[in-house]
Amino acid sequence: MKFLHCFCVVDSSLRILWVGGDWDDFALRNGGQAILANDVLATRLTDYISDRATTEAVEQTVGAVIGSQGTLRMDYRCDGPEELRRFRLTIKPMKDRRAIMVHELRDAIRLEQPMGPWAYDPASPDQKCSVCGYVHAAGKSWKDPTDPGTSHPALVSYTVCPICVTKIETAVNDLVQGAGAGDVGQLSLKPGFNRD
Predict the structure, then answer these.
(1) Residue range 28-67, pLDDT digits in tens
(2) What's the pTM value of the predicted model, to 2 decimals?
(3) 76 with 90: CB under 8 angstroms?
(4) Which partner from 24, 161, 163, 193 sits 20 to 30 angstroms from 129, CA to CA?
(5) Is 59 contained in some domain?
């Protein structure tokens, strides 16, 4: 995968004012034909988020950046069935109560053992964290689906796992309390680490 940057400018209500960089290229390579630049302008960013936990995380982070005029950085995963992809999101304030969200591909690793395709199902008891990419099969702990012996559920509902919620809340609190920058930081953990 080529080096990738995607940009998105939003206002305080999360209305998308501008997108750029490799937005359309990334959307097309990942089944997002309905979310090309011309299709998303003037819509709300949260219209494209499937779950309440992720919506709240985006609202919190962007709101903290605009309110504090500080910068927030967060590493996250956006994997494909055959590839582990780590991104860095940087949210910076702009004038007129706007923020720019810059998504930068940090690395992409072709998996020796593909995870297999999965689909979103809001009724699925199996969950996938929208931030770290870990999965939570019913009755089990959060696991990295790329770890040996861990399988990716075929159907998942999305959420934000407890560890990522805590990291996001800490970064938001740092901004609100005047730290100037919040950093959710590295989200990769050792295989088998219990996230409950």
Answers:
(1) 887 888 888 889 999 999 999 999 999 999 999 999 999 9
(2) 0.87
(3) no
(4) 24
(5) yes
